[in-house]
Amino acid sequence: DAKTTQPNSMESNEEEPVHLPCNHSTISGTDYIHWYRQLPSQGPEYVIHGLTSNVNNRMASLAIAEDRKSSTLILHRATLRDAAVYYCILADSWGKLQFGAGTQVVVTP
Amino acid sequence: NAGVTQTPKFQVLKTGQSMTLQCAQDMNHNSMYWYRQDPGMGLRLIYYSASEGTTDKGEVPNGYNVSRLNKREFSLRLESAAPSQTSVYFCAIRDGYLMGTGDEQYFGPGTRLTVT
Question: Rounded CA gap, A49 and A88, in Å?
Fold first, then answer.
């Protein structure tokens, strides 16, 4: 099964951008790259996903490498509410998500 | 967590007891999933149902059974609970109308289960 590799934690100052890297060297051609985040004591929350092209939505941007072996989630202006564990996940055609340990994002005022 | 409800929110069981976790959705989505999350770890898929009338095993199905009762409801049953099943259980849904579209999942608030 395809897996992802993320840093354990990242720290950012409030209102600064946050770039969260993810490596997925064994990605298959039909796997989608998904990002979810989880706040304490809550279920995961969808952030963004993409297949080959870069994607933008109201929460974040997703930059996908040309060979698709890595991607970066970009939070344009971190707020205290963005402090969470961020998961980079490869989803197969059945929508099955395989979570790793994620990256703990700490935002300091 | 809008659209996905889970009951109960908390449960304490003794080893060997059985129970059923309930999940219901009001978004008319086709696919439903059960995950468990142990402390400090990511979620692991237990079972999923791609559409009404079908169920399949995920990564950690041992000790669990599921029923897709109808399009709205997907239950997870522990027949003989063990301390290793102490975890937080999340239900999720996905439109899944078209294969391979990569659509997102919506998660419920979770059920916190302790087995003593």
Answer: 9
